[in-house]
Amino acid sequence: MILRGFLTSTIGSFPLEDSEANRERCLKDLISLGIDFPAYPQLTEMGKQFLDDLVSQDCGITWRDGRYRLATKEINVDVEPPGLEPLLWAVKYIEERNLNVKIKAAITGPFTLASYIEVGEGIFPLNTALSDINLVRLIAQIVSRTFEVASRYASMISIDEPILGVIVGARIPFKYTEDDIIEVFNILREKCGNKPTGTHICGRISPRLASILLKTSLDFLSHEFHDSPKNIEVYSPRDLRESGKILSVGCVSSRNPRIESLEEILELMLRFKDYGDCLIFTPDCGFRNLIVEGSRERGYEIAIRKLRNMVLAARKLSEILC
Predict the structure, then answer these.
(1) Per-residue pLDDT averaged across 216-244, rounded?
(2) Which pLDDT tens digit goes with each residue over 237-284?
C-alpha cells in the first residue's frame, strides 16, 4: 500500500474500561470522526494484553506478587501468537457490518515487553529481560508471529516501543548495539509484508535514537511533537527523504485535558509542510491515562473532542497545501 497525502490515525488506547460495549463505542466514534487509520480500541494495558497470554501458555514467564517474572533461564518460543484478541474482535465487528474501515494494529514491541519481565535483583531496567538482548530476541521471535497474523487483517501496523525513548541515549550499560536494535525492527517489519509498518515511541527522542530509526526498514516513525516540541529538531526533511520514511506527527496532547483548538493544531501541522508529501497525524500517545477529575468518562469525551479537531485541522491542511 502506498500512502499519500495528509492522513490521520490513533495510537490505540482510551481511558474506558475494557468491555465489548466500550470497544464498540470507541470504534463507532473513530469511524464517525473520519479517522483514516483508526487503531483497534486498546482498552487493556499494553504489556498485560500480550504478557498475560504468554503466562497462560507456560512459556517461562510467570505472574507473581503483582509482577511478571522469568522463572527459567530462557523463554519457550513454541507458543501461540499473543495479544491478538482485541484486533480480531475489531476486524470481525467491521466485517460483519460490511464497513469500509482501514484498521491499524498497535502491537507492543519486544523491547517494551522485555522491560516488564523481571529476571533478577537490582534497579530498573537492569533487573529486567530488557538488559539481555538474547531474551529480547526470544520475545521478538514470539511476537513476530503476532505481526504476521496482524498483517493479514490490518491496513497499517505499529510496533509500539515507548521504552526505547527512555533507554536509548541514556547511560545504561546494556551489552547490545545499535545494530541489534535495527535487526529486531527489520525482522518484525519483514513479517508485515506490504502493509505500512512503523514504530510509535513517545517522549523525548534523542538524536542517537532518531539516527537508529532512520536506518531501519520501517515505513513511518511516530512520535509526540505537541508536548515534546524539541523532537522536531531530531529529524530534518532531508533525513526523511533520504531514508524513505514518513513522519507520523503527534499533534494533540494525550496528557493535558485542555482541548486544543483547530487553529492551534493547524499551526503545529504547518511546521511539517516541508517534510514530504505524506504525513500521518495522531495524538501524542494513547489516551489511557487521560482520567479527568477521577472520571474515565470525562477523559474519554475530551479525547474524542481532541481527535475531532485533529481531523478538521488535517483537512484544512490539505486545502492549504494541495
Answers:
(1) 96
(2) 999 999 999 999 999 999 999 999 999 999 999 999 999 999 999 999
Q: Which grid coordinates are listed for 151?
A: 498483517
Which class for 166: exposed (0-12), middle (13-18), buried (19 or more C-beta within 10 A)? buried
Q: Which residues pair with 70 in a beta bridge?
A: 61
Type of residue numbered 311: V
The letter for the amino acid at 59 is: C
Cell numbers at residue 309, please? 479537531
Helix (H) or strand (E) holding 270: helix 262-270
Which amino acid type is present at position 226? H
Neighbours of 161 (CB within 10 A): 26
CB of 61 within 8 A of CB of 69?
yes
Contact, 35 vs 130, CB < 8 A? no
- φ, ψ of residue 24 to 5 degrees: the values are -60, -40
156-160 vs 278-282, strand pairing mode: unpaired
CB–CB of 193/141 below 8 Å? no
Enumerate residues 6+ apart whose C-beta is below 8 A from 96. Answer: none
With both helix axes pointing from N to C terminus, report the angle between 20-33 and 296-321 in degrees, rounded to the nearest 10.
Answer: 20
Q: pLDDT for 7-26, tens place per residue?
A: 999 999 999 999 999 999 99
Beta carbons within 10 angstroms of residue 31's beta carbon: 15
| 64-106 pLDDT per residue, tens | 999 999 998 889 999 999 999 999 999 999 999 999 999 999 9
- Domains, the chain, in order of start with CATH, read 5-321 (3.20.20.210)
Q: Which three cell numbers stand for residue 53?
A: 497470554
Give the Cα-Cα-Cα angle 133, 135, 136 (nearest 5 degrees): 60
* Nearest CA-CA partner of 87 in 35, 151, 145: 151
Q: Does the predicted model carry a pTM greater than 0.70? A: yes
* Cα–Cα distance measured from residue 249 to residue 255, given in angstroms and rounded to the nearest whole number: 16
Closest of 209, 257, 264 to residue 231, by C-alpha: 209
Cell output for 277? 508529501
- What CA–CA distance (Å, rounded) separates 30 from 26? 6
